[in-house]
Amino acid sequence: MAEANRTWMRFQWRAHKLIWNLSGGRLGRRVVGMPVLELVTIGHRTGQERQILINYFGSDEAPLIVGTNAGRDSDPAWAKNLRANPRARLRLQGQWRETRAQELAGPDHSAAWDQAVAASPVYAGYAEVLTRPIPIFRLDPDD
Fold this sequence. Notes:
This protein is an alpha+beta fold. The protein has helices at residues 2-22, 77-84, 106-119, 122-129, and strands spanning 30-31, 34-42, 49-55, 57-58, 63-66, 87-92, 95-103, 136-141. Strand 6 and strand 7 form a beta hairpin.
């Protein structure tokens, strides 16, 4: 059952990505009531650009992203990429900008986690089934 849900989720995100790309990031700015941004990282093994669309919460100035990996018990590739190279680009509200990711820890992670669960209770469900810590990154402007 869980794999069927992941397959459906993958299909939905691929359809969303198509609409997003065709509209230049103007359509599809929200999914399931949460805002969406486009994140372009550098692959930690390949060195090539990797693009994802991901829900975020917090401010538009320094959005927060959560690495649930759709309930898989391994960190998402984008988290590994940001650990290897925290510089990335993001498109938010149709505008591109450079960013530097910071993985949150300790009290900052706890406070961000509370915000994440308040924004979308589905995160709490992931925490119940995962045996790994769920990473949260803040995407600060890179001036």
